[in-house]
Amino acid sequence: METAEKTVRKTFSWPIFDETEVEAVADVIRSGKWGNPDCGDLVEAFEKEFAAYCGSKYAISCVNGSVSLRLALIACGVKPGDEVIVPPYTFIATASTVIEANCVPVFVDLDPDTYNISPQAIEAAITPRTKVIVPVHFGGQACDMDAIMDIAKRHNLRVIEDAAHAHGAEYKGRKLGSIGDVGSFSFQSSKNLTAGEGGIVVTDDDELYAMMNSLRNVGRIEGGQWYDHYNPGCNYRITQMQAVLLSAQLKRLEAQTITRDENGVYLNQLLEQIDGITPLKRGLGETRHCYHIYIFKYDKTHFNGLSKVEFTERLAAEGVPCFRGYPHPLYKQPLFQNKNFMCYALPDDVDYTQVHCPVAERACSDEAVWILQHAMLGTKEDMESFAEAIRKVQSEV
Ligand SMILES: *Cc1c(COP(=O)(O)O)cnc(C)c1O
C-alpha cells in the first residue's frame, strides 16, 4: 500500500542562527569574562539595547521569565495576602510567582474573541486587597491596555505586563511591555527571542528599577559594598554568553516579527473561509501581533463531531506544527485545587475548586488550536498549505 503524502512536507526549525551567534559566544569564551556584573559589560549592553527596542527607560535581565515576574511583583510592594489578578489561560508562572510572593492569584475570565484577559472581568474582581493586575499578551496579541490602565488608575493598582509571548509586538504603536508599570519577558527556548533561557523586565520608573536591580543581584544596591545586602534578593544574573547571544538574536527580531504578523493576517483570511474555523479577532488596538502562537477556534460540529484533540492530532499528522494547548485553565491544576502551597501562606478562605471561567474552560477543552511561532516564519505558500491541511482533515471526517 502507498503511504499517503503529508499535506505540509516542509519542516520548520527554531532557533534561527548562523556563524554570527557562534562567533559572538566564542569571543566571550576566549575573553575569559563569562560572568556579570563584576567582570564584564556585555549584559549591560544588551539591557540597553532591549530597553531602547521597547522604548523603555530601563531593562534588567535575569535568569528566566518566571523570576522576572517575581522581581516585578516584589518591587511593586505586594504584602502577604494581597490579591493579584491574573488570567487562567497562560503558562503556570504567571500565577505560581504570585504564590511565591505569598499573594493570592485571582483568576478572571477571558474575552472570547481574543483569549486575552477581559477588562470587565478584572473590574468585577477588584476588592480592597487587590494590588496588581497581570495582563498576559496571549500568543503575542495585545491586551486591551487602554481599558486595563484606566482600571488600574481608578483603583490605584500596579500593572505588570506578562509579555513572555510578546517581544516586538505593539499596541497603538507602543511596544508591549512598555505600557504598564513593568513589562516582563522570557528568553526560554520556545520564545520569539531566546538564549535557551533568560528573562528581562523593563520599566520607566526609577524606584522600581532600583529595587528590581537590587533583587536580581543578591540585594546589593548601586554604590554599596559587595558584601552589603539590603533587600531579599538572590543571584538571578545571566551570563555574558547569554547576553551576546541575545544581542545577536535581537537584530533578527524585527524582521521575524514582521514576517509572522504578515503571515498571521494572511492565514486569518484563508481560515475565515473554512466552516467551523474562526481565527481570533484582530483590530482591537494591536498595531503589530508577533504570533508567538497563532490561535484559531475549532468547532467540531463542522467536523462531524471530531474532538479537538483528535483534530489536532490529525492536523499534526498532515505536517502542521500545531498543538491542542493547555488542557485545563490554571485553577484546575492540582497545585491550586489541592492548595499545595507548602511554605507559602494563603488565607484559608481561598478555594480554587469554586472558580469557574467558562471562556477559558471552553478554549482548553473544545476550541483553541495553536500553530507555533516558528511555523509562522514560513512563506505565504506555507500558510496556504496549513489551510489546505485543515480542509483535507475536514473532507475526511
Ligand atoms: C514562558 C512563560 C513564562 C515564564 O518564562 P520562563 O522563562 O520559562 O520562566 C511566563 N509567562 C508566560 C505567559 C510564558 O509563556
Automatic annotation (TrEMBL):
<dbReference type="InterPro" id="IPR015424">
    <property type="entry name" value="PyrdxlP-dep_Trfase"/>
</dbReference>
<dbReference type="GO" id="GO:0047310">
    <property type="term" value="F:glutamine-scyllo-inositol transaminase activity"/>
</dbReference>
<protein>
    <submittedName>
        <fullName>Glutamine--scyllo-inositol transaminase</fullName>
        <ecNumber>2.6.1.50</ecNumber>
    </submittedName>
</protein>
<dbReference type="InterPro" id="IPR000653">
    <property type="entry name" value="DegT/StrS_aminotransferase"/>
</dbReference>
<keyword id="KW-0663">Pyridoxal phosphate</keyword>
<dbReference type="GO" id="GO:0000271">
    <property type="term" value="P:polysaccharide biosynthetic process"/>
</dbReference>
<dbReference type="GO" id="GO:0030170">
    <property type="term" value="F:pyridoxal phosphate binding"/>
</dbReference>
<comment type="similarity">
    <text>Belongs to the DegT/DnrJ/EryC1 family.</text>
</comment>
<dbReference type="InterPro" id="IPR015421">
    <property type="entry name" value="PyrdxlP-dep_Trfase_major"/>
</dbReference>
<dbReference type="InterPro" id="IPR015422">
    <property type="entry name" value="PyrdxlP-dep_Trfase_small"/>
</dbReference>
<feature type="modified residue" description="N6-(pyridoxal phosphate)lysine">
    <location>
        <position position="191"/>
    </location>
</feature>
<keyword id="KW-0032">Aminotransferase</keyword>
<keyword id="KW-0808">Transferase</keyword>
<dbReference type="Pfam" id="PF01041">
    <property type="entry name" value="DegT_DnrJ_EryC1"/>
</dbReference>
<feature type="active site" description="Proton acceptor">
    <location>
        <position position="191"/>
    </location>
</feature>
